[in-house]
Every structure is written in structure tokens, then in C-alpha cells.
Amino acid sequence: MARRHRRSREETDINITPMLDVVFIMLIFFIVTTSFVKETGIEVNRPSAATAEKKERGNILIGIRETGEIYMNKQQIDIRAVRANVERSLAENPEGQVVIVADKGSKTGVFIEVMDQARLAGAVVSVAAEQQ
């Protein structure tokens, strides 16, 4: 009689190892497939354009404020650091493109300098605008 009681106790134990394996595999799947949104780190008033197109892929974003301040990866950078930062970003993501997000009131000279530095780094440059 003691033997029967022991067997029933062993059979009632639930093995949760396979369930934990499935949970960890699902966690890894969701982490790998998640896409992260990159931002310039500043709020700008973009100009509108009738020919504006929506870009689906995450790119290298450079923001220019109305005051002429330049931001990349939520940090203010100097115009001389734009080329090095773009080169570093292109090394991480060779297919990335530079998107310049400039405020309506930003100066054209700063915009041209940023675009020139990005092109010298070997990047394809686009300009962000609001769709009309």
C-alpha cells in the first residue's frame, strides 16, 4: 500500500522546464524582432512639401534647431563632429541614410554645412518635411 501512495505522489509533480524553454524562446523572438525608433532629441517645426515621401526604415537623423544648434542621438554636437558621428553610424549600419530634420526658421548656411559634412562621410542625404 505504501508503494501505491508513493507512485501517485511522483506522478502529480509537474515538470515546468519545457514551459520555461518556450517562454525564453518567445522572449528572445520578441526582442530580436522589435524595431526601435530613433529620434533627433529635439522638437522642430518641419516645413511642408507636396512631394514629401514617408521613409519606412530607421535612418541616421540629424536635427537642426532654429537657433542653429545641431543634435544627433539626443545630444548636441558641433558642426565639426557631424562627419565623425555620421561615419561611426554608417560603420554600424552601412545601409543607413542621413535624414536632416531642420526647423523652418533654421539658417540655410548651417543646413548646407551639415549636408556637406554628411556627404563627405559617404552618406546619402535626405531632408525631412511634413506631407501636405
UniProtKB/TrEMBL annotation:
One example GO MF annotation: transmembrane transporter activity
Query: What keyword terms does UniProt attach to this protein?
Result: Cell membrane, Membrane, Protein transport, Transmembrane, Transmembrane helix, Transport
The organism's lineage?
Bacteria, Pseudomonadati, Verrucomicrobiota, Opitutia, Puniceicoccales
Among Pfam families, the record links this protein to: ExbD (PF02472)
GO annotation, cellular component aspect: plasma membrane
Q: What is this protein called?
A: Biopolymer transporter ExbD
According to its UniProt entry, the protein's GO biological process terms are: protein transport
Segments crossing the lipid bilayer: 20-37
Q: Which family does it belong to?
A: Belongs to the ExbD/TolR family.
Q: Where in the cell is it found?
A: Cell membrane
Annotated membrane topology: Single-pass membrane protein; Single-pass type II membrane protein
Signal peptide positions are: none
